[in-house]
Amino acid sequence: MGLQRARRTAVKATGLFRIAHLVVGAEAVTAEPVDGRSVALWAGVVAVTVLLYSSALLRGWFRPWWVWCDVLLTGCLLPWVALAAVGEGPAVEPHGWLMVQALSAAAVAIVALGSRGAALSVVLLLLTSLTVYQAVPAPEAAELSEHVRAVVECVALTTAGWWYLRRQGMVLDAAQGRAVLAEAARARRAERTAHHAALHDTVLATLSAIAAGRVDADAAGLRERCAREAAYVRRLVQFDQEPQPAPDAAGGAVDVGAALEKAVRAAEGLGLRVEARYHAVPAVPPHVAGALAAAVGEALNNVRRHAGTDTAFLTATAGTEGGTVEVTVADRGAGFDSRATGRHGAGTGLRRSVHGRLAGIGGWSRVDSSPGEGTVVELRWPA
User: Fold this and answer.
1) In terms of DSSP bridges, do strands 273-279 and 311-318 run parallel, antiparallel, or are they unpaired?
2) Contact at 8 Å (CB) between 51 and 18?
């Protein structure tokens, strides 16, 4: 983020530098008497400038080959064209309006081409000035000296300014990265605190009741509760063992597993047992994590209400392509004829709450079910 801002600032600064030189050129070519050849040369510089900077503003940075076109056309070729077409005057003077375009061309090369490319560009621009000077009628050494000094000063100032901008951008990015890591650590501590509180209210309470003899250890309801809480403990162990997804440096990505776990805990609170497995799930934007969790919650609610089974199976993993998420919710319940319930294989509830949510975030979903063979809900983001 900081380096991107530095680049945008460099694009604008060098653009203003070029505009200043174009204004000087416009004043020169429109002075009486007006020479159409000089006007055409000025229009050519304007065309190259528009192409160079429109591309840079759209992309946020310069295209190297456009920078080379600017250096070779504006700084190296057009002075020779001016010498051949005009012969003398402000267009071909050593520090005339056309030759000073080499200053802004050098500035762009320094920020966009790296050290070697910038050095080669500056050498080419200076060689062009020196050789054109030799061919100009009645050359003046003072003007050439002024021009070379101006190019050298421009190179020095641009190099120092770009180094400072880039350094500040990298410092800002590093600080923002440390802030994101600190926030991720804080969120992780808060998540562990919440898990500890949940363990106290569920697993520890159940074990304490059994140890005190206040409940029948053989009761069916207690066994089901113990099974749900054992699954919860297994997920906690898996969360600690699995590498956590790297946080986005811009602070715009969250842990999908944590979002899905809330939906799982909500379903378990209503009596459904969920066997959940998470494997290398990548971080995603918050709205994507929220939509996936809501879709999983609806799929689990459908298992609880319609499948005729008290167990569901959830798997979340990274897709085959980097940055993708694949989530599956399955059960071994009653099932239904998914071919008879719509294009996606779902009724109204699943169409609105699962397919609609995934479509809204650019994802994909499918429901596969047959009577007596259970149901499988597949989710993938991006599609």
Assistant:
1) parallel
2) no
Q: How far, in Å, are 64, 77, 152, 286, 311 from residue 1 at the CA level? A: 21, 37, 31, 19, 46
Is the bond leading into 382 cis (omega within 30 degrees of zero)? Answer: yes
* C-alpha distances in Å from residue 11, one per residue of 44, 62, 119, 120, 158: 20, 8, 19, 21, 12
Average pLDDT, the chain: 80
Q: Are 25 and 45 in contact (CB under 8 A)?
A: yes
Residue 78 tokens, joined: 């057009």
> Is the separation of the CB atoms in 306 and 268 below 8 Å?
no
DSSP string, 213-258: T-S-TT-HHHHHHHHHHHHHHHHHHHHHHSPPPPPPTTS--EEHHH
Instruction: For 301-343, write each residue's pLDDT tens digit.
Output: 889 888 888 889 999 988 777 678 999 999 999 888 877 655 4
Q: Are 3 and 171 in contact (CB under 8 A)?
A: no
Which DSSP string do the residues of 310-373 spell out, in sequence order?
SEEEEEEEE-SSTT-EEEEEEE-S----GGGS-TTS--HHHIIIIIHHHHHTT-EEEEEE-TTS
List phi, psi (to 5°) of 34. -75, 130
The mean pLDDT of 29-55, rounded to a whole number, is 86
- Residue 276 phi, psi dihedral angles, 5° rounding: -110, 140
User: From CA 233, how far away is CA 195, in angstroms rounded?
Assistant: 9
Q: 86: which 2 tokens? A: 């005009």
Does the pLDDT value for residue 240 go beyond 70? Answer: no
State the Cα–Cα distance between residues 21 and 67, nearest whole angstrom. Answer: 17
